[in-house]
Structures are given as structure tokens and as C-alpha cells.
Amino acid sequence: MKTIVVGAGIVGVSVAYSLLNRGHEVTLVEAEEVAAGTTSTSYAWINSHKKHPESYHALNYEGLKHWTHVVSAQHPETVLLHGHVEFAVDHGHRTTLRQRLERLQSLDYAARWITPEEAAQLTPVQVPQDALVALFPWEGHAYPQQLAASRVAEMRRSPDFSLIIDPVTAITRAEGRVGLRSGTQLQGDVVVLAVGNSTTEVAAKAGIQLPMVPKEVGGAAFGYLAYVRAPDHGLQGPVTSDHLNLRPNGENGLILQALDLDATADPALTPAPEIAEEFIDRLQALLPAVSTELEEVRVGHRVIPGDGLTVAGPATEEPENRLWIAVTHSGVVLGPWLGEALAEEISTEQANPLFRDFRPTRFASAEQTPAYAAPRNPGDQ
Ligand SMILES: Cc1cc2nc3c(=O)[nH]c(=O)nc-3n(C[C@H](O)[C@H](O)[C@H](O)COP(=O)(O)OP(=O)(O)OC[C@H]3O[C@@H](n4cnc5c(N)ncnc54)[C@H](O)[C@@H]3O)c2cc1C
Fold first, then answer.
1. Fewer Cβ close by (within 10 Å): the C or N end of the chain?
2. Superfamily name and number for 82-138+220-301
3. How far is the C-alpha of 97 from the C-alpha of 100, rounded, in Å?
4. Is the ipTM of this complex over 0.95?
């Protein structure tokens, strides 16, 4: 089959990779460069932690297993699954952490209480003696930009693969035609749209309505990520605390998130110096013995479909439709598995029951998309 995948973030690259491995011809079309979008500015915590409803937890659980058993075997340099430690001191956080741990245990997800002394064996972060501490041993963090680059390099060795850098400007879904800004016209048996935050605009070119959360300051879309130099920090995996999330970024760096600060994150502005200071103050309280230097605070743009849930499958139920859509929040957790599952559906024409709640067609019939709450609390993403 001749396939065209539009968008070379973690989702598009994963779809392209899995289609190629199934013997299809793949043209990957990207507007800028591989991993130019959100994939390069992500916290990339691998988990299925606070995913509602249960059908969405099931997808993320598949994503986590895929990283554990497939990606970590093929590209071990792109993922570390040494566990995630979360500790709560604030009353509100203690309550939600208890609720989350109990729910995850009821779903047979690895989650247990540990003492602050046990936490000290697992992480250099200072965990207060009165903290409630949980360990999620299956979780970890990834380097999605690196995975996308490695998989594209691998695909380039195949005569059935080509990468075109040229934005898509037109799509005809019944004929599988894709027009590029340069004037080039492509035609495929199947076209998969994986354009992240451009989904609404690009899908509209094919006559498909697909809302994403509003691009508004103070909403769910934008969030800060602080990149810090921290030589020999000794952190093995993500740590979530009342007011700061931190994860390793190599052996000498960290990525920080403070969700309660995100209300001011604005991609049009340079983050205020007070934001940078706040990140460093919070970090020093947790890692007082490590020397740290802030490199950059970036504003990331989350890829969130209007109702917060994954979108995967054919754009319409019309028999002549050739357009498929793949767009999701938690795209790092989900991308590699989603690529595999969609490539299987495309190849076999067998619907995957796990996708039942996640088809693009739900937006055509929905009168109004329910508002998606901004992630501002520990354990959110
Ligand atoms: C602050 C923050 C924290 C996050 N934390 C996590 C986390 O802990 N765990 C997790 O799993 N996820 C997390 N995410 C989300 C995750 O990073 C994204 O879901 C994922 O990177 C989306 O990948 P994508 O391939 O769909 O989109 P993108 O990476 O944005 O890729 C889309 C690509 O499409 C291209 N494109 C756009 N328009 C066109 C066009 N017209 N023609 C051709 N190409 C086009 C773009 O250039 C881009 O390269 C976080 C995101 C943010 C911002």
C-alpha cells in the first residue's frame, strides 16, 4: 500500500515506522524538521497515572507496556523506567495521592507506599519525614526527540521510505491527494494526519471538524518547562512533590515543571525572571546539595484534542474515505504504541476495540465539546 504520513513528531514518526515495518511504502511529510513541534518541548513522563475514563487508562497502559517491552529493547538510550516517586506534604495533595494510589492498585497498576527512608535510597531529593510517599515502579521518563530522530534515520535506509520537508496545504480525503506548499502533489491509498497542534487547521482543509483546546493563556494548552544544568545530580527518574516536578535530562541536567505557575505561560512572551527564580528556589529546597544553574525556561504547547482524549482512526465512516487522524495528549506515552496499533488497523482493516471511544467521528456528532480542565495539580500532565 502507498501511504502518506503528515507530521514528523513522535506520533507521525511512530505511525510511519510501523507502516514501513509492515511492508508499506511510506512518504513522511513535515513542515519544518523532524520533531519540530511539541515533541521537542515535553516533560515526557512515561506513565498511565491519572487517566480517566478507564478506556483512556487502558490506552496509556498499552503505551507504557510498549515503551517497556519494545522501545526500551530497540532504543534503550531513549527511555529509563526506574520508577517514579511522588511525595505529599500539603493536606490537599495527600488526599489526592491516596485516592490515586488506591485507584491504580484497583486497576492492577504497580503502585505502593514507601517510607521517607526508603525514598532516600531511591532518590537524592530531600523527602520530609512527615511526607506521604508513593512509588510507581513501572514509570519513568523518555527522550522522544531522540527516538523520532533514530527512527527516521533507520527508515531512511529503506528504499520504500521518503521524507519531504514541505508543509501540506491541501488534502482531498476521497482520493488520498495531498498538496504541498511547493506545488508538489502526492497521492496515497491512505493518508495519516499527525500534525499535533495544527490538526484543526489541516483537518479543515479536508472538510473535517476537529477541535483542539483553545490556544489561550491561562488555559490547558501552555505550560512552562525549566531546563537546568545540574552536574551529577544522581536522580534516576521523575519525582513529583507538592510544588515541583523534576526528571533527569541526561546525567547532568534536569527538566522541571511547576504546574501551579502555568497560568501565565504565554508562547508570545519570554518568561518573566520571577518564574525562573521561583523554579530555582523550589529546586534548591528539594536538592540542596546539588549545584544547579538554570539554562532556559520554555513554554510548551500541549497537543490536546478538545475533549482531552485521544483521536485515532478514519476521519469519516464513508467507504471512499482515505484520511486517518492521530492526535493525542500524552503523545509521548502513547505515540509508539499508537503508531503500531494504527498501522495494524490500516493493514488488516480490523478495528481495534481499544479505540472504540477515540474515533475522530465523535466530533462530527458532538453538539458541544466539554471543556477540558487545565492541568494545575500534582500528578496532572
Ligand atoms: C509542558 C508539556 C508537558 C508534557 N508532558 C508530557 C508527559 O509527561 N508525557 C507525555 O506523554 N506527553 C507529555 N506532553 C505531551 C506530548 O509532548 C505531546 O502529546 C507529543 O509530543 C505530541 O506529539 P505529536 O507528534 O502529536 O505532535 P508534534 O510533536 O507537535 O508534531 C507535529 C508535527 O507536525 C508538523 N506539522 C504541522 N503542520 C503541518 C503541515 N501543514 N504539514 C506538514 N507537517 C506539519 C509540525 O511541524 C510537527 O513537527 C507534554 C507536553 C507539554 C507541552
1. N
2. D-Amino Acid Oxidase, subunit A, domain 2 (3.30.9.10)
3. 5
4. yes
Q: What share of the chain is helix, strand, coil (3-state, %, to 5)?
A: 35, 25, 40
Pick the atom of ligand 1 nearest to 197's CA: 30
Q: Does 2-41+144-214+305-365 match 82-138+220-301 in CATH topology?
A: no
Question: Pocket around ligand 1: residues whose beta carbon is below 6 Å from it?
Answer: 6-12, 29-32, 36-39, 41-45, 167-168, 194-198, 202, 223, 225, 300-303, 327-333, 381
Domain 2-41+144-214+305-365, CATH 3.50.50.60 — does that match?
Answer: yes
Ligand 1: centre distance to CA 303 (Å): 6
- pLDDT by residue for the chain (381 residues), tens digit each? 999 999 999 999 999 999 999 999 999 999 999 999 999 999 999 999 899 999 999 999 999 999 999 999 999 999 999 999 999 999 999 999 999 999 999 999 999 999 999 999 999 999 999 999 999 999 999 999 999 999 999 999 999 999 999 999 999 999 999 999 999 999 999 999 999 999 999 999 999 999 999 999 999 999 999 999 999 999 999 999 999 999 999 999 999 999 999 999 999 999 999 999 999 999 999 999 999 999 999 999 999 999 999 999 999 999 999 999 999 999 999 999 999 999 999 999 999 999 999 999 999 876 677 788 899 998 888
Question: Nearest C-alpha to atom 17 of ligand 1 is from which residue?
Answer: 42
Distance 39 CA to ligand 1 centre (A): 4
248 phi/psi in degrees, rounded to 5: -70, 150
